[in-house]
Amino acid sequence: MSSVVIFKRSSYGSSFLSQYSRTKTRAFCSSQHLHNFLDSHQNSKVLDSGYSSILLKSMKQPWGSFCALGSSGFLGLQNQQSLHLNPKALIWGREFGTQAAIEPRTSDGLTVDGIAGSKWTIREENESDWKSHAAAIAQSIQVIKKRLQWKKLMVRLDLLSAELNKPELWNDPVHAGKISREHGSLMGKTKEVKVFEQELLEHIDMIKLAREENDTELESESMKALLRMRRDSKDKELKALLSGEHDSCFCYIEVQAGAGGTESMDWAAMVMQMYKTWAQRRGYGVTVVDEMAGEIAGIKRATIKVDGEYAFGYAKAEVGVHRLVRISPFDSGKRRHTSFAAVAVIPILGDGSTHVQINESDLRIERFRAGGAGGQHVNTTESAVRIVHIPTGVTATCQNERSQHQNKASAMAVLQSRLDQLEIARQAQMNAQHTQSLTEISWGNQIRTYVLHPYRTVKDLRTNYEVSDPDSVLEGDLDDFILSYLSASLDKDEGEQ
Q: Who contacts 148 (Cβ-Cβ below 8 Å, separation ≥6)?
């Protein structure tokens, strides 16, 4: 929805004002001097009286600071109306719908950084204190910007904008499409933060205005809006953790048993069940793509497909070796055993986003009888499919579908994702994150330890986050571990930069 913006010009420079739908008026600030703003196409008229206290105060104090205008090209705006108030000030207005690159402020000069740096006490949510809500929201905005690497993001956005303005860009439609998609994604992220920032300052102004005019209804509405924003800010903080290129993708989760024989195969099955439960608790779809059962118990390896927004962004925190310490149920002497299982997570890139083109001539397709508990046609026909990518040696297997054609299609999808992951890792020089996690499944490489005897605890060795209820973790309560790791990883990246 558009709104009317009013600009004021004086010898001190120019400021902007926006009329609320409730006939209240809000102030905006500009540090720019727009002395030659009006052009010959503008029509003049005198404003009527009856403005709110904020507008009248701003006309008396043209040097005051105001909130940022949501428009970026106001130097070239068309169809403005020149509105003469007095010899010292000039106001004009138009409708707007774009964003501006001016730091937003309240009518009395408060910025988000200023609020976050203030000594306003942050109280419980149920306490009706607008300063408490505002301080909590401002701190959340700072956290969001930190996680998004705001300055780096803005520089990248400028570079992409310049690239999009090049006339020869679309000579290469594939490259142009990638640039356009990335630009759109970054624009969406910055716009969401700026709108949230501006909304906070608007409600602060509205509360102050309501108190000046004894409007209890307006004050109550703005207080409720601040409380709602405070609660929403936590979700936005979480979303900001998942700002990687492929974080929003679906994914495959692979689990492979390590050193420990039957013990580790049983542990690998427990780990895979943990991820299935975690995904289902988050509302994600889970499909078993491949599973090789152990001779006595558990699994040698298994792959599941997780369908859901940001599945890869969350699950990537689980990549690595997981170690279990417990009294073995397979040892008649009831001795304590240590088992290992490795986890790899692969993003499923959308159509048009694949990094590797697979040639049929590079594939070796093997067909064999599916293993498992049996069933009609399961063990009597060669329905299982294994596909080997000869140049890289990467393989993908599927035996859980009913027909050979379905198994081949599923195996090809897994192979494509694995090759894409390897290419992404090669380009980023970080392929160890995926390949090492499945090759060195032993002591010294674990990311998390699950101890069931002689005491009970689960500890992430990367972040030192620890809980004393391993049962809840094995039942899929992984979010705290995931968020702890994602936050620590972001802090580490910033420290290295």
A: 189, 193, 240, 243
